[in-house]
Design a protein that fits this description.
Pfam families: DXP_redisom_C, DXP_reductoisom, DXPR_C
CATH topology of the largest domain: Rna Polymerase Sigma Factor, Chain: A
Structural class: alpha/beta
GO biological process, one term: isopentenyl diphosphate biosynthetic process, methylerythritol 4-phosphate pathway involved in terpenoid biosynthetic process
CATH architecture of the largest domain: Orthogonal Bundle
CATH superfamily of the largest domain: RNA polymerase sigma factor, region 2, helix turn helix motif
Number of domains: 2
Order of helices and strands: EHEHEHEHEHEHEHHEHHHHEEEHEHHHH
Keywords: Isomerase, Isoprene biosynthesis, Magnesium, Manganese, Metal-binding, NADP, Oxidoreductase
Shape: globular
Radius of gyration: 20 Å
CATH class of the largest domain: Mainly Alpha
Organism: Faecalibacterium prausnitzii
Largest sheet: 7 strands, parallel
Oligomer: single chain
Strand content: 15-25%
Protein name: 1-deoxy-D-xylulose 5-phosphate reductoisomerase
């Protein structure tokens, strides 16, 4: 069945892989958004002919406007964060796929849900920073929330038997361990951004690759899993699976475990979110068991990788704790990529923010953005 897709964050790693899936399935692109990559989104506009395109960076939007000027059937241009929300709300799409990086994606996620659209979610920060707002909106508007992260898609796939899902007792959330697996604090002290950007298995953008190196990404995914699957954090065990073949697993009350396996390619979970509940042939090669000789499992070291410990503290505190951790991390990673702080400073600053307040209680969307601002200011004040 043909579908119309609105793709937010189309020029990033997840966005371009989503377009591979959309191309292979013959789906129609209703709308595209990017932050500042004008040349890349122009190529996408020429191939996919969306009705709408949004640039959240105003200067980039002006360049795109000039490039589109005079073109026949040019898409309507929307600008800025408000334009992104306007695009997410547009009637005429079947699924909104949100692959925007960071808390910038939260407003668009909520707007898509409130507009009655099914949401394929690759923006984990939507649930990390505003979990109860997102899940309440999904329940209120009766839409589907379809996970795109490979780990959460794996868990989602393992829970398709609704009767068995009632007896879920544990989630085994897998992690590659990143480029620094097995190293201790002293070994990490001098690591540079070039070192941290060398992920062993996945090809991802800079932010998420750094998050993988610090294990912050796994902490964020633990928080996301709490909201998606309704288990408390102590029932979610992080397991290092270095080959990134076992994408996650679930354990039931009889202690049987069901896992989802596949090659490390994000187009599998992207495709399942877009074709759900159908499974169809796609662009990803099959897992070749004739060459697969070894699957290893290990324990995540949260004593060394403090971002993971901080995320566990944050979700146990509840309320805006996860939002504070996320905001501090976004700011710290930005500073690390600018060579202004060291690798270990990321974990130190994230944990310090989480330890700085109790953070419990209900919150509004305005509270989320205020907490995010506070966390970023905290990081800059504690360099």
């Amino acid at each position: 069945m043909s579908k119309k897709i609105t793709l937010l964050g189309s020029t990033g790693s997840i966005g371009t892989q989503s377009l591979d899936v959309i191309r292979a399935q013959g789906y129609e692109v209703f709308g595209l958004s990017a932050h500042s990559h004008v040349d890349k989104i122009l190529e996408q506009v020429e191939e996919f002919h969306p009705k709408y395109v949004c640039m959240t960076n105003p200067e980039a939007a002006a360049k795109l406007d000039a490039a589109l000027s005079g073109r026949a059937n040019a898409p309507k241009l929307l600008v800025g964060p408000e334009g992104l929300k306007e695009l997410a709300a547009m009637d005429g799409t079947d699924v909104v796929l949100n692959s925007v990086v960071g808390i910038a994606g939260l407003g668009a996620s909520l707007t898509a849900i409130e507009s009655g659209h099914d949401l394929a979610l690759a923006n984990k920060e939507s649930l990390v920073t505003g979990g109860h707002l997102v899940t309440q909106a999904v329940a209120k508007h009766g839409v589907k929330l379809l996970p795109v992260d490979s780990e959460h898609s794996a868990i989602f796939q393992c829970l398709q038997d609704k009767e068995s899902a009632k007896s879920l007792t544990k989630i085994l959330l897998t992690a590659s361990g990143g480029p620094f697996f097995g190293m201790k604090t002293e070994e990490l002290r001098g690591k540079t951004k070039a070192d941290a950007l060398k992920h062993p298995n996945w090809n991802m953008g800079a932010k998420i690759t750094i998050d993988s190196a610090t294990l912050m990404n796994k902490g964020l995914e633990l928080i996301e899993a709490v909201w998606l699957f309704g288990l408390p954090p102590e029932k979610i065990q992080i397991v290092v699976q270095r080959q990134s073949i076992v994408h996650s697993a679930v354990q039931y009350s009889d202690n049987s475990i069901i896992a989802q396996l596949g090659v490390p390619d994000m187009r599998i979970p992207i495709q399942y979110a877009l074709t759900y509940p159908a499974r169809v042939p796609g662009v990803v090669p099959e897992l070749d068991f004739t060459t697969l000789k070894l699957l290893t499992f290990d324990v995540a070291d949260e004593e060394t990788f403090r971002c993971l410990a901080a995320c566990k503290k944050a979700i146990k505190k509840g309320g805006l704790g996860p939002c504070a951790a996320n905001g501090a991390n976004e700011e710290a990673v930005k500073l690390f990529l600018e060579d202004k702080i060291g690798f270990l400073d990321i974990g130190r600053l994230v944990e310090a923010v989480v330890d700085s307040d109790s953070f419990g209680g209900d919150y509004t969307l305005a509270d989320v953005y205020e907490c995010d601002k506070m966390a970023r200011a905290f990081v800059r004040a504690h360099l």
